[in-house]
Amino acid sequence: MNGENESVISAHLRAPRAGALAGIVFSILLATSLTLIRLSVPDSPEDPGRWLAHSAKSINIALGLLPFAGIFFLWFMGVLRDRMDVNEDRFLATVFLGGGLLFLAMVFVSSAATAALIMAYEAIPGKLMDSATYTFGRSLTYEIANVYALRMAAVFMISTSMIDIRIGIFPRWMAFLGFASALFLLIGVGRWAWSPLVFPVWAFVVSVYILIANFRREPVVKATT
Q1: Which residues contact 115 (CB under 8 A, 6 or more apart)?
Q2: Residue 127 domain-assigned?
Q3: Domain-embedded: residue 222
Q4: What's the total number of domains in the chain?
């Protein structure tokens, strides 16, 4: 019986550790992708599209990283829910899940639209730039990524921080860090070009804390008779 208990507890500890590592990988992949995009694409959606001729390769690399970032983000969400355990607040957990999944869905939609623009440019470069298709596609990707996806990321951060205040899944200072980061993200979009990096940085800090906390936690096995 002792061996079975130790196996169950060990498996329970390994899952949050794997999720924390996934959160770290997610934050690195997302930060790398955002950096490549920011260095390659003008911040304004009114640009004439010259970046398509000069930066398509780096954009394709950035877009290729995003599906993997999304996979690791789901694991990151899983480890956050694991820390809630039986104290999970249904209302806040619903907002938490909704914000996270909407963020991920909008990132994927924006990435697919950007990839479509690049493919269209490679097929008919002259015709694309002379048509309204480019203007529409560029404006669409900008609005989805910068207006909607990043605000859903802020909702995810706020709900996570409120859950922390409610049931104490992290130290209190991490909740305040989440609130401050989310507020900066809400007001910084469109004003500061590098403001989207706030989200992966926050996810990295949270993931590192969870990883350290789970390595410090030792399995305690009750004696059985």
Answers
A1: 60, 63
A2: yes
A3: no
A4: 1
Query: What domain range is 32 assigned to?
Result: 2-216
* CB proximity list for 127: less than 8 A, separation 6 or greater: none
| Buried b or exposed e, range 209-220, using 16+ CB within 10 angstroms | ebbebbeeeeee
What letter represents residue 194's amino acid? W
Tell me if 193 sits within 8 A of 150, measured CB to CB: no
Say if residues 204 and 21 touch (Cβ distance below 8 Å).
Answer: no
pLDDT of 223 reads 39
Q: Taking a C-beta distance cutoff of 8 angstroms, is the pair 106, 153 a contact?
A: no
User: For residues 87-103, b (16+ Cβ closer than 10 Å) or e, as one string?
Assistant: ebeeebeebbeebbebb
pLDDT, tens digit, 9 for 90 and up, residues 10-38: 444 455 667 788 899 999 999 999 999 88
| Alpha carbon separation from 96 to 88, 99, 155, 211 (Å, rounded) | 11, 5, 7, 21
